[in-house]
């Protein structure tokens, strides 16, 4: 008996080793080339660096992605490995390009938005760098090797006699055991480092889901895609898993928030502009750093600078968008909720219930319209705007493209036609939202529209950006003239803000632009700050308000002016005009309350982040202890927002409020 077992064990090992010789070189080459690329990508992402855990998870992920090829015959295996190399290389390259633009990783919801890629073509080309060819350098080699195997095997099969060994045993030793070994090795390399970190510094990371970068730092890139797919499947296919605790947490959160929101009702501006028209402009990629600045002796934004002097201006206003870009800005400002950690709420949850400006104002008797000279399906606007209860969505079909610029219509004509559309409706009061587009990345304006002399920045993307800001500014100037001519200026509240940053992160260019070095905190602030102004009839209350505020506060601010209580709605923001205090929370878990400014670390642990004291104007680094409580509260805000959106809780709250 013992002797038999010994023979079996010997044969087993021998068989396994014999089996091994059929798969090794293909998978080894794939693992080597993928590890090289993943390492290179990590270097370019620059968000935490490689450590031995990341090497392990990366290797584990490639083994799991490729172990199944062992079951195939030699020819199918060679072809499959070459195709796998091609597919994974494309994925990594797509991630790289996406990261250069969004500072984030591709997720399943983003892929579901992939229909929009066509429009981004110019941006994509501008993000490709000469050295990127290296990502595909091994592909010809992989296919040449596959070709060689094909050729060799077909030559061999002509000369070989059929092997009459027992097929079941052969399968076991040559395929099943090696495949199981590789699978187990891949699984262990992936599972243990993740588990180890999850029980250590990354505790709560996968529950909170507040930012993809720390998740990537634990799982590696391929691991992130695996996790993201699992997360999506769980959310969409395995039922509503809302816990009683999460529900209670969301309820408590809103009870607290409503108390803060209530404060505005006893403040002087409350209801001062009841019944006035509201004209909101959401300007594409419009950032704060061009406001009040000159280049080549000329103001970049002369019209906005003048308007700011006649308006309430918030120089410390931040965009809070994430992967959903323009649609996130729209969601934040109109519906006063945080964007999702992945994808766009417009696309993922367009059927859910939200309390957004158009539906709130409609219930107050307003005519509500939204204007955007682009395809109505982009960012799923047709569906979302219907859900937000806009009376009408004027999209590309409703505009004459008489000034083609970039993706569609030049902003001057867009504004002119928007005012015509409002005039035709003859309805008041109205709430209208205009979303501009001319200043979209990569900011290439026709030569004849480039009016500024941008000096050394000529021919750079930042130079093009500044030109396009100047172009949009002049469109705003003409719009104001137009509104005045139509007699709308004096009974309309005008709001102007930028939707998000410009995706230009070449700091040398900014240093050239500012003529001085840019500090780390400045980099973060430059990316996050967009202008925000409210012009009130008769230039009322014009002045600068230094308070730190964000896009999420926009609708409550309008409600403050129009005298609509925020209490019976579900809005996460607070009126910017109220004395009530709260922080501005960013999707990565960063925040500022005007006294401190917190930049989270790539591992997401609050005490590892950087805390700045910004109260005195010196922006000095301070003890993280001053930011930890704020960072915890920011995480809570984000997670409540996610719970409410993902589980359609506003619908539930509305139902309960009716009872
Ligand atoms: C397209 C426009 C641009 O309709 O809103 O979207 P973005 O690429 O900036 O998110
Ligand atoms: Mn945009």
Please write out the topology:
Layout (H helix, E strand, L loop, with lengths): L1 H19 L3 H22 L6 H15 L7 H29 L5 H5 L8 H7 L11 H21 L7 H32 L6 H4 L3 H26 L6 H19 L14 E7 L10 E2 L2 E2 L2 H8 L2 E2 L3 E2 L6 H11 L9 H4 L8 H6 L4 E5 L9 H7 L4 E3 L9 E2 L2 E2 L1 H15 L4 E6 L25 H25 L6 E7 L8 H8 L5 H9 L3 E4 L7 E2 L4 E2 L3 H9 L21 E2 L5 E2 L3 E4 L10 E4 L6 E3 L2 H22 L2 H10 L1
Parallel strand pairs: 1-10, 1-11, 4-13, 5-14, 6-7, 6-10
Antiparallel strand pairs: 2-3, 4-12, 8-9, 11-12, 15-16, 16-17, 17-18, 18-19
The structure holds (2R)-2,3-dihydroxypropyl phosphate and manganese (II) ion (MN).
Give the termini separation: 76 Å
Strand residue percentage: 5-15%
Q: What ligand molecules are bound, each kind once?
A: (2R)-2,3-dihydroxypropyl phosphate, manganese (II) ion
Mean pLDDT: 92
pLDDT under 50 segments (min length 5)?
16-20
Strand order of the largest sheet: 7-6-10-1-11-12-4-13
The backbone outline, from C-alpha atoms, is: globular
Helix content: 40-55%
Number of strands: 19
Oligomer description: single chain
CATH class of the largest domain: Alpha Beta
In CATH terms, what is the fold-level topology of the largest domain?
Alkaline Phosphatase, subunit A
Can you tag this structure with a few keywords?
binds (2R)-2,3-dihydroxypropyl phosphate, Alkaline Phosphatase, subunit A, 2 domains, 23 helices, five-stranded antiparallel sheet, 659 residues, binds manganese (II) ion, alpha/beta
